Amino acid sequence: MLALLSSGAPLQAATAAATPPTAPAVALPVLPAQAASVTAFLHRGWHIEQQFQADFDRDGRTDALLLLQPIQPPQPEGPPQGWSAPRRLLLLLRTADGWRLAEHNDRLLPRVDLSSQQDPMAEGEITLQPGGFRLSLGLAATIGSYQMATLRYSFAHDGQCLRLVRYERLELHRATLDTRDLAIDYLKGVVLRSQGNAQSGASQQRRERLPAKPRLCLRDLDDAARFKPM
């Protein structure tokens, strides 16, 4: 989980939290470099959780963006237990004779302890944007904390990869309704920080220049709960 606010604490007093617990390692199947069909990138025991079609590399062919997840056994009644399943994001580019795996990421969508945290995709979504897509994730504790955050990653294909062009982190304390937001435009090199209160509507903003940093591809990004955007 991201560090937000302790109950009743002023926004200025927020501090970084300890590193979140690490999910147990899972051996993931090797993906083929190319295949004749989209379903050929699926291994036994996995399914396509979400699928999107668009011409990402602007070559006139319709490509595919897949979100894959292992098929889960029926859950017993009661609160969820255990760790959320791993998820894989794949960009498949259409070729003259099939599909090519352009890049993939197995780490970005965090695995969380479902006994105390909400599945990041429960309130998350993937939406297409011109030449790319936006991934939204929700990080929220289900017990013991009022903290929650929405993370948004915007990607655009630049001819080499799906490049991260914008990052947003929207934090909310559900008891006090204090907010703290961060938005980074990697193309313009601009950082916008804001803090306020969702109930009163009060807000303060500060604009900064983004320090020089290599622009990352989808394949480069680590666990969203640990990602350092600057």
Helical content, roughly?
A: under 10%
Q: Name the overall outline.
A: globular
Strand percent estimate: 35-45%
- Secondary-structure class: mainly beta
The number of helical segments is: 0
The biggest sheet, with number of strands, parallel, antiparallel or mixed sense and barrel status, is: 7 strands, antiparallel
Number of domains: 1
- The strand count comes to 12
Query: Quick check: average pLDDT?
Result: 89
Report low-confidence residues grouped into runs of 5 or more. Answer: 1-18
H and E order: EEEEEEEEEEEE
Strand order of the largest sheet: 6-7-8-9-10-11-12
Oligomer: single chain
Distance between the termini: 18 Å
Q: What do you see in this structure?
A:
- With 230 residues, this protein is mainly β.
- The protein has one domain (33-220).
- The chain is 0% helix and 41% strand.
- The protein contains no helices and twelve strands.
- The chain has strands spanning 34-35, 46-54, 63-70, 88-95, 98-105, 125-129, 132-140, 147-157, 162-173, 178-185, 190-197, 203-209.
- The protein has a seven-stranded antiparallel beta sheet, with no helix packed on it.
- A hairpin with a 5-residue loop joins β11 (190-197) and β12.
- The model is unreliable at 1-18 (pLDDT under 50).
